[in-house]
Amino acid sequence: MNKPKVRVATCSLAGCFGCHMSFLDMDEAIIPLIEKIEFDRSPLTDIKSIGTCDIGLIEGGLCNEENKEVLHQFRQHCTLLVAVGACAINGGVPAMRNHFTVDECLEESYLNGLGVIDAQIPSDAELPKLLSKVIPLQSEVRIDYILPGCPPPPQAFLELINAIIEKREPVLDYHNRRFD
Ligand code: SF4
After folding, report:
1. Which end of the chain is more exposed for a tag (fewer CB within 10 A), N or C?
2. Domain locations in the chain?
């Protein structure tokens, strides 16, 4: 009888989708992988709500209340949670705003920034409230694995997922890290 597939969910919080693009960069290596895994909630499937999963891959840190909500849903539904990339692990590029207040960031973006004309600070009630600082995932929930890099290279995703399936420690050596 065929072994049940490992169910994987992915999402991008305060990230740029570069980590998801790197995952897809594994090209034809995804064919044998897809024999072993199936996707749940993910931008790759466009499934919007998460079910019970074995692995949750999360790109990006936390910059607003909605990010926190999604992270807790992933923690609740995934056996193993992976912080994917520098933004998830330490805040990354979005955390550069931590040197300023939220008001200063909004004023620079929507009122005073170079080339900004006749704009206003968005205030729709549906917009998620910004956190005062961008924070990494592990400051909010338990994280089981990290995939370092910006973005982590495709082979790092492969190594981690295969290691979890084979119930061994992943080998994330120098070649499985990339910052470029
Ligand atoms: Fe983008 Fe790099 Fe952050 Fe990944 S780690 S979301 S590639 S900026």
Report:
1. N
2. 6-95+132-176
Q: Tell the residue nearest (CA) to atom 2 of ligand 1.
A: 150
Pocket test for ligand 1, best of 17, 24, 58, 150 (most atoms within 8 A of CB): 150
Q: ipTM, 2 decimals?
A: 0.99
Q: Whose CA is nearest to atom 3 of ligand 1?
A: 87
pLDDT at 1 over 80: no
Provide the CATH number for the domain formed by 6-95+132-176 in this structure: 3.40.50.700
Give the tens place of pLDDT for each residue, 107-116: 999 999 999 9
Mean pLDDT of 103-128: 94
- Would you list the DSSP string of 26-84? TGGGHHHHHTTEEE-SBTTTTB-S--SEEEEEEESBEEEHHHHHHHHHHHHHEEEEEEE
For residue range 72-97, list pLDDT tens digits in order. Answer: 999 999 999 999 999 999 999 999 99
- Give the position, in ligand 1's atom list, of the atom nearest the Cα of 93: 8
Question: What's the length of the chain?
Answer: 180
Pocket of ligand 1 from Cβ distances under 6 Å: 15-16, 18-19, 59-60, 85-87, 92-93, 150-151
Instruction: Quickly tell me which residue has 């709500």 as its tokens.
Output: 49
